[in-house]
Structures are given as C-alpha cells and as structure tokens.
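ingest -> validate -> predict -> emit
validate: passed (alphabet ok, no gaps, 336 aa)
predict: started
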Amino acid sequence: MDPAVASALVIGGIIIVVILILFSLSGLRVVNQYERGVVFVLGRLIGAKGPGLFWVPPFISVMRKIDMRVVTIELPPQEGVTRDNVTVKVSAVVYFYVVNANDAVNNVLDYYRATVQIAQTTLRSVLGQSNLDQLLSEREEINRAVQSIIDEHTEKWGIKVTTVEVKDVELPSTMQRAMAKQAEAEREKRAKVLLAQGEFLAAQTLTDAAHTIATEPAALQLRYLQTLTEIAVEKNSTIVFPLPIDLIEPFADLMKRMANGHDGASAPKPATPPAIEPATPPAIEPAQPAAPAPAPPAAPQAPLQTPQTPAQAPQNPPPPYAPQWPPLPPTGERQP
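emit:
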C-alpha cells in the first residue's frame, strides 16, 4: 500500500474518532442537587433527569433546568377596599416551591410570574371580603384563606404554596386617629373600672379591719401609736399631736380592774360613805294645842296665823302639809 494512502487513512480515522468523542461529550449534562433537568428530544418531552451527570442525544435535544428550592416572593402593597368600606394597603410574602418540574415547564410559560400575579389577585380578593377588624386581629385566617386559593390555582402548574403571611397593613391617617381615640377611650374605661374595684376592695378591707379593731379597744390605740411611728421615720420634722383621752382610758380601766381584783382577794371592800347633802333649815311649825272642851257649834272662821318676824321666816317653802287650827271659842279669846 502506498505510504501516502496509509497515512491519509490513519489521519482520517483519527479525525473520525475525535469527532465521535466530541459528539459524545457534547451530550453530557450536569445538574445540581437542587435542580432537575427537563429534556426534550426532537421536541418531545423525555422527562426530568438529575441530579448529577447524564447523557442526552446532542444536537437534537434541549434541556431546561428547574430550581426545586423554596422561592420567596414579596408582593408589593395592594390597595383595596374592605367590606366595611375602608381603604387599606396590604403587603404580603409568599413562599412556594416546584413539586413537579415537568408540569412547571409544560403547563405554564413562566411559573414564577404566574404565581406572583395569582397571589396579588387573590390577596385583593380576600381583602375585599374581610372587615377591617378581621384584617387586623384575625390574620391567621386570612393567611390560610389566601394560601388555599393560591395553592388551588398553582397545583396544575406543579407549584406548592407553603406559606402566605400578611406583612403590613397601611391605614389612612384619619382612620389611625379614630382608632387611637377608640383605644384611648377603652383604656380609660378599663382604668376607671380597675380604680373602682380597688376602692371597693379597700373599703371592704377597712370595714373588716374596723370590725376586728372594735373587738379590742386597745387595738385602736396601738394602731394610733403605729401611725405616729411611721410618721416619725423622718427625723427632720416636728410632730405635734393631742393626747386623746381614749388613749389613756383602756390603761386606766385595766389598772382599776387589777386594783379591784387585788383588794377583793385580800380584804372585804369597804362600804362607800353616803353622799353628804347640804342641810336644809326645818320649817317652823306651831305646837299642837290641847283638845278644847266641847262647845256649841259655831260658824267656821278663817284661822288666824301668828305673824312671824323676818328672822323666824323659814328659808324653804312650807311643806305641802298645813296644820289644822281648831275653831276659836265664842268669847273671841285667843288660845295659845
């Protein structure tokens, strides 16, 4: 064989081998652990492959990588009107990931953009069906409602929505002032109720304490002394207070009881002397005359009284009993 021909055949074989090697290497694909490669051969879906190294027919195959990690979408503020006609702006955050890479490629053109749009629409829809109080206090229910609606729409795209969280609720300034006044009034009402309850409990406690102190008179005096002790803690002031009789009376009664008990045990109690009343001068009464001899009846005459000098006049008025003078004899003589 001609050497020239042999060298040409060798060079041609080498070229063919290199071309085959390059052709084979061009079909190698590498997919990361968090990705999947959706392969199309001549326009037909073969399926998702990966992760790792695999080979696809070169020049006639197309592969699209799909990220399987959780995607976070921050929705811009959505302005809407609540069911009680209050205009608010609500922003939220949506978390989702791709469950089926084949559906994410075949069933939707851009699953990311489609998910964002359906999330915004759903958020405005749920916002219009809720009251302002529900939006502020029942966010968990609103989050679950938005999540269920978005998940229902994105399920056929191979998308799973895990969480929807309402991030911020922006209210008009007038509504903020009205809510601030309402909250302030509610706080004042609760403060007044608590104050009234405190006064009631304090009055009830004071009543119980007064009943307890009333059982023992000395307890009030001890409380009085304790109050003075509390006042006198600061020694930079002078306290002037009257000494009440009630402060000494319990101690005096106690000493009397002790003295009476001691005297009764040792000796009989002496008799109390009667009270000495001032002497009253007795009224001067005339002596009773002797019974006269029977005389003929005569007309009764007014009895004559012996005149008394000022020195003999009684100091006190005469007693209610007046002596009865006998009738004068007919001769008109005065009997002693």
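Helices lie at 3-26, 101-106, 111-128, 132-137, 139-154, 173-214, 217-231, 245-266.
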